[in-house]
Write a structure and sequence with these properties.
299 residues, mainly beta, Pnp Oxidase, Chain A, seven-stranded antiparallel sheet, elongated
C-alpha cells in the first residue's frame, strides 16, 4: 500500500489578516524555496546531592519559530516583514523625472538663482535612462552632471561616463535665465531660474526613469512603521497520488528582510517568524498551528 501521509514539496504561502481572514497578498507567494517550522520545548531536570541522574523531569517553556525562503519581493512580503506599505506608481509611457531637490547648499534647485525645474525633452523619450542624477554647480552659471550608474546607458542613444569620472557631460553645461539646457543623450533638460547665480560646489539630485510599465518605492526602517502579527497558510505540492497538506499558523510575527545581490543569481529572502498561542480565526480552536490533509480521489 502506498504511503499517503508524507508531506512533499512546497506550493505556496499566503499571509492573511488576523481580523478578516482575507489574504494580505494580491496573489499567493509562489516563488518559494522552503517553509519550515520548529516547535521546541525545554526539559527541566530535578537534580540534587551527589546523584548523576535526575530525580524528576518536567516540561518547561515551549517556543515555536519558523523560516520561509522566498525568491520574490512582492508588496505583501515587504509589508509583513517591515510594516512599510510600498508605493506603487502607474505606468509612464514617456518616462519621468522626479523633483530636483537640494543636497548640499540651496542654490542649485531654486526658481530664482538656480535651476527652476527638470523636464523631459520633447521627442526624446526613448533616450530617458534609469539613474539617480546629481547636478553640481562649478561656476555661478554652469553645472556638471553625474549619474549614479550606467546600468541603463544602452537605453535609446548609447551613453558613457566621461573617462575618469561619473560625469555624463564632457564640458560644463550653461544654465541661462529662463532658458532650457538639454543633457545630450539622456532625454532630460534643465529650465533656468530668473537670475541664475549658483554657489560653487552646491549640489542637487533627482531620478530619471525610462518609459515603463510601473515602478515601486519603499522606505525601509521608518520609525513610524511597525510590523503586525499575521496568520500564515502554507500548502504542500500536490503529489502524484493526490495528497495535499495545509499548515495554518494562527498568529506569527515576521522579522527582517534579507536582500542578497549575487552574480548571475536571483536574490533570496530567508525570513524568520515567531508564533504565539492564539485562536484559529477560521475554527475558533486555540493553539499554535494546525495541520490539515486531504487525499483527493482524482489522481
Amino acid at each position: 500500500m502506498s504511503i499517503n501521509n508524507s508531506m512533499f514539496g512546497i506550493d505556496s504561502i499566503i499571509p492573511y489578516n488576523l481580523k478578516t481572514g482575507l489574504p494580505i497578498s494580491k496573489t499567493p507567494f509562489k516563488v518559494v524555496g522552503s517553509f519550515a517550522t520548529n516547535v521546541t520545548q525545554e526539559i527541566i531536570d530535578l537534580m540534587g546531592g551527589s546523584s548523576f541522574d535526575a530525580f524528576d523531569t518536567e516540561l518547561g517553556a515551549r517556543t515555536f519559530e519558523g523560516t520561509m525562503l522566498l525568491r520574490q519581493y512582492p508588496d505583501a512580503l515587504i509589508e509583513i516583514a517591515t510594516g512599510v506599505t510600498p508605493t506603487d506608481n502607474a505606468a509612464e509611457a514617456n518616462g519621468s523625472v522626479s523633483s530636483l531637490l537640494n543636497v548640499n547648499g540651496v542654490s542649485v534647485s531654486d526658481a530664482t538663482i538656480g535651476i527652476d525645474s527638470v523636464a523631459l525633452t520633447a521627442g526624446a523619450s526613448a533616450d530617458v535612462k534609469y539613474a539617480r542624477i546629481v547636478v553640481k554647480a562649478v561656476s555661478p552659471t554652469t553645472v556638471d552632471v553625474y549619474a549614479s550608474s550606467d546600468v541603463d546607458f544602452a537605453q535609446g542613444t548609447d551613453a558613457a561616463f566621461i573617462a575618469g569620472s561619473q560625469k555624463i557631460n564632457a564640458t560644463p553645461l550653461t544654465i541661462t535665465n529662463g532658458g532650457t539646457t538639454a543633457v545630450a543623450g539622456f532625454g532630460i533638460e534643465f529650465i533656468g531660474g530668473s537670475a541664475v547665480d549658483f554657489n560653487i560646489d552646491d549640489t542637487a539630485s533627482f531620478v530619471s526613469k525610462p518609459a515603463n510599465s510601473g515602478s515601486r518605492e519603499v522606505n525601509i526602517g521608518s520609525p513610524l512603521a511597525t510590523p503586525k502579527s499575521i496568520g500564515l497558510l502554507a500548502y504542500t505540492q500536490r503529489t502524484s497520488e493526490g495528497s495535499m497538506y495545509e499548515l495554518n499558523i494562527y498568529s506569527a510575527l515576521v522579522a527582517g528582510l534579507p536582500i542578497n545581490l549575487t552574480e548571475k543569481a536571483f536574490s533570496e529572502a530567508e525570513l524568520t517568524f515567531k508564533a504565539k498561542r492564539a485562536t484559529n480565526i477560521f475554527t475558533g480552536q486555540e493553539g499554535l498551528f494546525s495541520i490539515n490533509q486531504v487525499n483527493s480521489n482524482s489522481i
